[in-house]
């Protein structure tokens, strides 16, 4: 497996490798000059045909079965249902004319444009670089990873979206709108699984022996390989894998059923956060803080995983991650506060909490794991922030749907979207669950529409690649939930 060499951002076809720098957190971001050029305009006009956004599922929606909780006949059975939804309502998100018009609006003035043309790679070179970015991986089973192909018009399918055969035990939530992914590369899955176990056991002493089965059952290797199909090496995949394990270790040990509790969570979270966002203090107090980073599994895991990440990331990528983790920790705190007082939030309040207690820190490292950088100012654009938030929200509601029965069976009342809808909107469990599917589907469609609009408004290679990376993460996340029958079981509503 070709798998060593320096990590860190690069766009191999466009940028030489930067020289190594002394301090990892002082690395120079590799940001190629990617200004939109007149040649790109021509390319774009042909690139973005109308996008079809499928309508919400025709079956089984809450609307279809509203007030029919006790009428079994009103709800189709799983075997009669499509695994994915045929296309319906067409949203012409991007027409070629609109793409060209918008690109013209964003064009530099004449002098700048002239200079851009002079400094531009020739047309064939540029087109082929952009096409490579948009085309994504090639070969059998990679079609769904192409931004260009994903944003092509979808004619109404006579049959459900072509999905790989799914064993009954790994059935998708009926009526869920999602994209199947190619089977993750087994050689990579095996290698990531081997290395992550070695890291967990030897480097951070993550779990006692009796939790080994749960660690294996989590299948983090499969998860991360599915979510990062463009990672250049296994070393890059390991950046995401260590963080994923660390994030889950903290959630389990501080918040959930491996010793977690809402009581005192704020203090524990803040101290663990210093493993990501270092404490700067006087000489007297430094040793105690350093010692604290070794004092429990979540802190050991955060500290080690973040060390590897900082070594590979640019300073702004590392800071992006810290910000996303602060968001996550704030979400944990709101969930804990509600658990302590027994408060069931309104549905929108729950969704707002879940926007923070969210997978967001995982898709937003897609560029570091891919070995390139989405520059900070492009990441900070409001339209990019909306894409990221919608992607995170869709992925997290996927978790609420797949983990519904696990959470129903856990001690106490565990809030998730179906539970909150049932309580606050006075629906039976099944209708509430079906409504939660509708909420997910609308979020997923909104994510795809927002990504398509951004791809049109800002068609720079790192933006397009990042959007593709986030979309791949969303799809891989769904696939992991669907296939992780060790952890999740679907409810019997069909
Ligand atoms: C990987 C990561 C950033 C996790 C943070 C939050 C988190 C654990 C989730 C969004 C998953 O939700 P949940 O806590 O409900 O997980 P399970 O349902 O127990 O798998
Ligand atoms: Mg859950």
Give an account of the 3D structure.
This protein has 494 residues and is mainly α. The protein has a single domain, classed as Farnesyl Diphosphate Synthase. The protein contains 22 helices and no strands. The protein has helices spanning 38-47, 62-65, 96-105, 110-118, 123-135, 147-150, 186-203, 212-218, 220-227, 234-255, 265-273, 286-292, 297-312, 315-341, 347-356, 366-370, 376-379, 382-402, 404-408, 417-424, 429-457, 461-483. The model is unreliable at 1-5 and 10-169 (pLDDT under 50). Ligand LYHC5SXD binds at residues 244, 247-248, 251, 328, 357-359, 361-362, 396, 399, 403. Belongs to the terpene synthase family. 2-methylisoborneol synthase subfamily.
Brief digest:
This is Terpene synthase. This protein is mainly alpha-helical and 494 residues long. The protein is 54% helix and 0% strand.
């Amino acid at each position: 497996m070709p798998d060593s060499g320096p990590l860190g951002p690069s766009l191999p076809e466009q940028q030489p490798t930067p020289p190594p720098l002394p301090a990892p957190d002082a690395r120079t971001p590799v940001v190629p000059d990617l200004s939109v050029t007149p040649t790109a305009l021509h390319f774009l006009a042909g690139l973005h045909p109308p996008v079809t956004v499928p309508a919400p599922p025709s079956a089984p929606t809450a609307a279809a079965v509203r007030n029919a909780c006790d009428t079994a006949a009103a709800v189709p059975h799983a075997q009669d249902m499509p695994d994915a939804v045929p296309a319906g309502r067409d949203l012409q998100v991007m027409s070629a004319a609109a793409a060209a018009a918008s690109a013209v609006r964003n064009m530099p003035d004449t002098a700048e444009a002239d200079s851009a043309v002079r400094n531009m790679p020739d047309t064939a070179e540029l087109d082929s670089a952009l096409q490579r970015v948009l085309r994504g991986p090639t070969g059998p089973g990679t079609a769904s990873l192409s931004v260009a192909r994903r944003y092509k018009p979808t004619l109404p399918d006579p049959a459900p979206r072509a999905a790989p055969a799914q064993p009954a035990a790994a059935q998708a939530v009926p009526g869920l709108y999602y994209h199947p992914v190619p089977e993750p590369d087994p050689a990579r899955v095996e290698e990531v699984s081997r290395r992550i176990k070695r890291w967990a056991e030897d480097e951070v002493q993550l779990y006692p022996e009796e939790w080994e089965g749960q660690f294996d059952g989590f299948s983090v290797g499969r998860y991360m390989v599915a979510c990062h199909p463009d990672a250049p090496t296994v070393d890059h995949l390991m950046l995401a894998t260590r963080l994923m394990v660390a994030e889950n270790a903290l959630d389990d040990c501080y918040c959930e059923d491996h010793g977690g509790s809402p009581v005192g969570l704020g203090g524990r979270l803040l101290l663990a956060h210093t493993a990501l966002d270092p404490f700067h203090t006087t000489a007297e107090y430094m040793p105690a803080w350093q010692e604290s980073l070794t004092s429990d599994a979540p802190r050991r895991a955060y500290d080690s995983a973040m060390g590897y990440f900082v070594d590979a990331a640019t300073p702004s990528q590392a800071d992006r991650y810290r910000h996303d983790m602060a968001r996550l920790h704030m979400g944990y705190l709101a969930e804990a506060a509600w658990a302590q007082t027994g408060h069931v939030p309104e549905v929108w309040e729950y969704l707002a909490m879940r926007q923070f207690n969210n997978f967001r820190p995982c898709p937003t490292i897609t560029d570091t794991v891919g070995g390139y950088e989405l520059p900070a100012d492009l990441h900070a654009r409001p339209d990019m922030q909306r894409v990221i938030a919608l992607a995170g929200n869709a992925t997290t509601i996927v978790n609420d749907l797949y983990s519904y029965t696990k959470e129903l069976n856990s001690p106490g009342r565990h809030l998730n979207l179906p539970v909150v809808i049932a309580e606050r909107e006075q629906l039976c469990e099944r209708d509430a669950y079906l409504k939660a599917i509708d909420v997910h589907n609308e979020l997923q469609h909104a994510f795809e529409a927002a990504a398509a609009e951004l791809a049109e408004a800002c068609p720079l290679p790192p933006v397009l690649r990042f959007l593709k990376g986030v979309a791949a993460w969303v799809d891989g996340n769904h696939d992991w939930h669907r296939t992780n029958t060790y952890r999740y079981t679907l409810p019997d509503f069909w």
